[in-house]
Amino acid sequence: MEQSELFEAPSPCIGVCENSPKGFCKGCMRSRDERFGWHDMNTGEQLQVMKLCARRYQRMMERRRAKGKGDINLELNFAQPQSPQSDLL
Description:
The protein is mostly helical. 36% of the residues lie in helices and 0% in strands.
């Protein structure tokens, strides 16, 4: 038995249940699948999701800070890959 199995992971939900444009909850930073599957996950999986949420939150805060400083490098939209020819236009 692993140590993570001895403790129950608390839900990261803070009652702000609204999706961001990227599909993550604005309150807890979980994806839809992570939210709906939370109670079916074992404690280790829940802890892994909580780590992912912490990273997502950190990246979001970094983007906000960069946006406030006018740094556009972190504002690239990776959902729409650019072709090499777009640099030539």
